[in-house]
């Protein structure tokens, strides 16, 4: 059964014992020897495949190349055998924290992997790169890796359910540092005390503002979760050496809650698995069929439906206005409620367009779908008829869609909304969608064959046919992998692919 941890700020003179702190309870969950349920194992395999798919599609992009070059400029640390880097040969390794960095950027670059949305946003698949990197470095087997990944997902999703970071303009990766540190702790079989110290250090070093996702969005958007993963690896290393961390990190009168979140009078109810209870959080998350911010997924599906049923709406000459009635989150983060002029700028960066639902809905209406490359090109964004249609699209917060967004009932939780299209001839078209087609409650929920199909689609341009089959075989045998096989759990680019990618020089 689930237990609820009551979280509040404590004055220093209250002397909150570590056993009463959230970080300690998270560490207890990580140290719990409970096994992973079969359906959770299956979903972990799906997400390992999904991460590799989106990493393959981003191998030659500049931010990924820069992070990869940084990692390759660092030698394997002396305490283990090192970790692999996406795209590179199996014997080309680096230190685990730098592998977590490079692979984390590759996974996040296209914003195309799994998601969980509740009080906060998250991409829980960001836990996979740092935990896999450590597993490879220390020679862990597939069974230990699965247990570590189950913890990473569980802790991040539990935190995301209860604690809003964006409300106070703190970036959502502040929940990722602790979850990745906890997952590594499970992987390594560390004791509660050590994991507790690692969680505190990981949180302390990964709190930053949300400016990375505001206005003109920079390439740091992909680096932010990779940095959190890198910090988690380093935090575990420090804790294993006996070093301590700020405490109480969440509850202290100068801690995260008091000064970065809801303030000294704040309270939260954090749902956590009880001792001996299976870690099943991953099953509440969902992946992306389309390479766009998750709150755009359902809207893309609705737009492609309208493209077929009402093709006249693709021509801006026929359209007076389009209003997307949606949740508070969608309106203010990726909609016109953000008041970011960049969301309507045809010269905006890919990262900015990815967070512009007016742009995304316009393109999907006109094209009847979405492509992870073609839908973002400068030529596509600058097309005259697209710009005209795009600038007729606005969003509006709808109280009912906001309520459904925050609902804890999975049968009514929704990430879509209702579209109202006014045509120049005076007619109106209305339609709505609650969840994306690929969502577990959607029209076509993603299953193993869909994850494999997505991997093949994204990997075929950069991996050989033999490499695709090699990786899929390993991934689908994940819990039975030997330490040697875990060290091969990566993707190796086809000959010449990386040679054509940027290779920027820096300090290292």
From TrEMBL:
Any GO molecular function: 2-methylcitrate dehydratase activity
InterPro entries membership: MmgE/PrpD_sf (IPR036148), MmgE/PrpD_sf_1 (IPR042183), MmgE/PrpD_sf_2 (IPR042188), MmgE_PrpD (IPR005656), MmgE_PrpD_C (IPR045337), MmgE_PrpD_N (IPR045336)
Organism field: Microbacterium kyungheense
Key words, A-Z: Lyase
Domain MmgE/PrpD N-terminal stretches: 21-268
Protein origin, superkingdom: Bacteria
Record family assignment: Belongs to the PrpD family.
Alphabetized Pfam families for the sequence: MmgE_PrpD_C, MmgE_PrpD_N
Catalytic reactions on record: (2S,3S)-2-methylcitrate = 2-methyl-cis-aconitate + H2O
Subunit comment: Monomer.
Protein name: 2-methylcitrate dehydratase
Domain MmgE/PrpD C-terminal intervals: 290-477
Enzyme Commission numbers on file: 4.2.1.79
